Automatic annotation (TrEMBL), chain A:
Pfam families assigned to the protein according to its UniProt record, in alphabetical order: NQR2_RnfD_RnfE
Protein name, UniProt field: Ion-translocating oxidoreductase complex subunit D
GO CC terms of this entry: plasma membrane
Enzyme class, UniProt record, top EC level: translocase
Protein's membrane topology: Multi-pass membrane protein
Residue numbers of FMN phosphoryl threonine PTMs: 153
Transmembrane segments: 21-39, 45-63, 83-109, 129-149, 170-196, 208-240, 252-271
Function: Part of a membrane-bound complex that couples electron transfer with translocation of ions across the membrane.
Matching HAMAP family: RsxD_RnfD
NCBIfam families: rnfD
GO biological process annotation, one example: electron transport chain
Organism: Candidatus Saganbacteria bacterium
Family annotation (InterPro entries): NqrB/RnfD (IPR004338), RnfD_bac (IPR011303)
From TrEMBL, chain B:
Lineage, highest ranks first: Bacteria, Bacillati, Saganbacteria
Name of the protein described by the UniProt record: Ion-translocating oxidoreductase complex subunit C
Domain 4Fe-4S ferredoxin-type: 349-380
PROSITE patterns: 4FE4S_FER_1 (PS00198), 4FE4S_FER_2 (PS51379)
InterPro entries reported for this sequence: 4Fe4S_Fe-S-bd, 4Fe4S_Fe_S_CS, Ion_transpt_RnfC/RsxC, Nuo51_FMN-bd, Nuo51_FMN-bd_sf, RnfC_N, Soluble_ligand-bd
GO cellular component: plasma membrane
Protein family (similarity comment): Belongs to the 4Fe4S bacterial-type ferredoxin family. RnfC subfamily.
EC annotation from Swiss-Prot or TrEMBL: 7.-.-.-
Length: 308, 428
């Protein structure tokens, strides 16, 4: 008989893997992808394909340079970063900027910190912040759905002209905005899928949205409008829930989501930008190491929270 | 499920209990030789009381220690002592052992009769240890510090390890022994509240005990791993948390496994020490998985052969105990000991272990840790040799259940790393 294999316990493992988790997020984004192509046509498709492909390409090149094995999880995570990055820009973006943005996401935001699992900031959002700072005009030039004319987003209209969009349009998403953020219904279908398959924990989006509602009440804003507008749903369910850049503990997740909601509303109402989802998540990303440290909670059999 | 008692955290692995849970306990073939390790329990190694050439009978004490936390070992067959020397044990360690060659007479030691007098010393003399796997000496567990009183005795019939059904079958077939054992323990501990915890997947056992025994509170537990962990069981049944670093009696509880209760009864009724135990011999590709009553010291090879070997492929990995906390044995030529609850045979496809990747901080391990730890960080600190940090984050509270390694999406060897940290912390 051949030699027996000796490995440490446990001897069975759950079938879940990182690439399966990523695949679930992809599946969840399909409705929004379809909606974006319907509303913004081939422009959107070109931006999406360019960004996804270049993200994967940069990932492979950098892993080669770093002499690391290329694993399934690396490919799926970089493709997802690319897709999310494309989702939070205007369909008006030229392809070469998107290639540069992919480079920022993968090389700077991810690999400069050590690669998958070690990055502090959500790579897609970090890259978005970078292009928003470098090409502010392009980043705020939106195309109206089904047409090649520029238009303003509901949040901009509210901020600059005090005009509120109607709920149905915002729910369906046939208005100007970033490629993947406009259709609330499509995103919510995907979000439900993520929750049901337990790919994401409900705590981050729940506390994020609850805080937005509470802040709208306090600040005298239209609650439904604030929930449906901008990148909130995309951000709350798909960006803030990125495992790598969100807290690992349950109390940490509540606070993280609440912080995102708080900052989003501050920026939206008082800030210089009409939208605050991207920056709020990035700011809270920076706080995650602190949350992990102070919000571990109670160890079994201890009276007080364990604070290291 | 809200109507079932449980603890927070935990996992739901595939249980595969259907392979053996309907198989009545069978007597394993009488072995032609046994190898009996002189350390089968948590505690001190026994000194041999026999030498090569001696003739021994079933139930004869062949090893003992004068240390308090230890348990004597006894001959499980009659025959001639062939050797007293270090032999390979299921953990991979070499342990001083007594080899006995059978004379096939099954001769029982003269004078074995129901013990009179002190129950605790009878239990100690009989070498009874926790039969659930940890093998902690039972007499120590039953001897409470003088100033301590407990108000609850909890009987552990959870059997939360996948594949294992030996406790389940014992509950169905040896119920009267279990009840007798409970009565004995109840008197020793002078406690009146008895709780009997059984996981919801053992419906027949729950029904059986609910109908049969008045005076014992049956607690239906959620089927979830590690429901049978002492701390988790006490939390589920009584809602009390054993303090960090403390012992169950500090919250007024003692936990006994059903197999241990049955053994206490056997000893009290007949005087026979621990010479056998029930072992679930199982595996997806094992021809005929069985629950066997096995003489201590029988080799794994014999038992696997009695179950017909594997039907497909080759035996690649064999686990002593359950798949979550058991040991992968280095050779099939290792003996069954008092704590061997199962022998799980795996072929190539089940034996493969995926390579660990870097942590993606998904928090799954944190969500399920029954001790509310952060296994991801404990693993990181252990990997980087920062054992102080690991200690501050509660490494010593880890019960080594392995649930974190089970769920990890990146397939990290978390519990292994945490065990390493614990060993390093203990060295300080
Ligand atoms: S850290 Fe310890 S107690 Fe927690 S799940 Fe892992 S092995 Fe179990
Ligand atoms: S389950 Fe694995 S990948 Fe997820 S946080 Fe824990 S250690 Fe990291």
């Amino acid at each position: 008989m051949s030699k027996l294999i000796v490995t440490p316990a446990p001897h069975i493992k759950d079938s879940d893997t990182v690439s399966k988790q990523m695949r679930n997020v992809f599946i969840a984004l399909i409705p929004a992808l379809i909606a974006s192509v319907i509303f913004f046509g081939t422009n959107a498709l070109v931006v999406i394909i360019t960004t996804v492909l270049s993200s994967v390409l940069f990932e492979v090149i950098i892993l080669k340079i770093r002499k690391k094995a290329i694993k399934k999880s690396d490919i799926s995570s970089s493709a997802l970063t690319g897709l999310l990055l494309a989702f939070c820009v205007s369909s008006f973006m030229p392809w070469w900027i998107m290639i540069l943005a992919s480079f920022i996401a993968i090389a700077v935001a991810k690999h400069a910190f050590g690669g998958l699992g070690f990055n502090i900031f959500n790579p897609a959002l970090a890259a978005r912040a970078f292009i928003l700072a470098s090409w502010p005009v392009l980043m705020t030039t939106w195309l109206a759905p089904y047409a090649a004319i520029t238009s303003a987003t509901p949040l901009e209209l509210l901020k600059e002209n005090g005009i509120s969009a109607d709920y149905l349009t915002m729910f369906i998403g046939n208005h100007a905005g970033s490629i993947g953020e406009t259709s609330a219904i499509a995103l919510l279908i995907g979000a439900l899928y993520l929750l049901v398959t337990r790919t994401i924990d409900f705590r981050v989006p729940a506390s994020y949205l609850i805080t937005v509602v509470a802040m709208s009440l306090v600040m005298g804003q239209d609650i439904v409008f604030q929930l449906l507008a901008g990148g909130l749903i995309l951000g709350a369910f798909f960006m803030a829930t990125d495992p790598v850049t969100s807290p690992v503990t349950k109390p940490g997740r509540w606070v993280f989501g609440a912080g995102c909601g708080f900052i989003t509303m501050i920026i939206r109402v008082w800030g210089g930008y009409p939208e605050g989802v991207c920056y709020s998540i990035l700011i809270m990303n920076a706080v995650v190491p602190l949350l992990d440290r102070y919000l571990q909670g109670r160890i079994f059999g201890c009276k007080r929270w364990n604070v290291v | 499920m809200f109507w079932l008692k449980s603890f927070k955290g935990g996992i739901h692995p595939k249980y595969h209990k259907e392979l053996t849970n309907f198989k009545p306990i069978e007597e394993a073939e009488y072995p032609s030789k046994v190898v009996i390790p002189l350390l089968q329990h948590t505690g001190a190694l026994c000194e041999p009381l026999v030498k090569p050439g001696d003739y021994v009978k079933v139930g004869q004490k062949i090893g003992d220690s004068n240390k308090y936390i230890s348990a004597p070992v006894h001959a499980s067959i009659s025959g001639t002592v062939k050797a007293v020397e270090p032999r390979l044990c299921f953990t991979g360690a070499m342990v001083n052992s007594v080899e006995i060659e059978s004379d096939s007479k099954k001769e029982i030691l003269d004078g074995i009769s129901p013990p009179k007098g002190d129950v605790i010393s009878a239990i100690k003399e009989a070498g009874i240890v926790g039969m659930g796997g940890a093998a902690f000496p039972t007499h120590v567990k039953l001897s409470l510090p003088k100033d301590k009183k407990i108000d609850a005795l909890i009987i552990n019939g959870a059997e939360c390890e996948p594949y294992l059904t030996c406790d389940h079958r014992t509950m169905l077939e040896d119920a009267y022994l279990i009840v007798y054992g409970i009565e004995t323990a109840k008197k020793v501990l002078s406690v009146s509240n008895i709780f009997f915890g059984i996981e919801s997947n053992k419906k027949d056992a729950i029904k059986f005990f609910r109908e049969r025994i008045p005076g014992i509170k049956l607690v239906k537990l959620e089927t979830k791993y590690p429901q049978g962990g002492e701390r988790q069981l006490i939390k589920a049944v009584l809602g009390r948390e054993v303090p960090s670093g403390g012992l169950p009696y500090e919250v007024g509880a003692v936990v006994l496994n059903v197999g241990t209760c049955a053994q206490i009864a056997k000893t009290m009724k007949t005087g026979m020490p621990v010479v056998d135990r029930v072992v679930t011999v199982t595996g997806k590709y094992l021809k005929e998985p069985k629950n066997l009553r096995v003489r201590i010291g029988t080799s794994f090879t014999e038992l696997i052969n009695q179950c017909g070997g594997v039907t497909k492929g080759e035996i690649k990995k064999v686990i002593a105990g359950g798949p979550m906390m058991g040991f992968a044995v280095p050779s099939l030529d290792v003996p069954v000991v008092k704590g061997t609850s199962g022998i799980l045979v795996m072929t190539e496809e089940e034996a493969k272990v995926p390579d660990p990747e870097s942590c993606v901080r998904c928090g799954k391990c944190v969500d399920i840790c029954p001790q509310y730890l952060m296994p991801n960080f404990l693993g990181d600190y252990a990997e980087n040799g920062k054992f102080d940090k690991a200690q501050k984050y509660g490494a010593l509270d880890c019960i080594e259940c392995g649930a974190c390694s089970y769920v990890c999406a990146s397939k990290r060897h978390l519990v292994q790393l945490i065990k390493l940290a614990k060993t390093e912390i203990a060295k300080k």
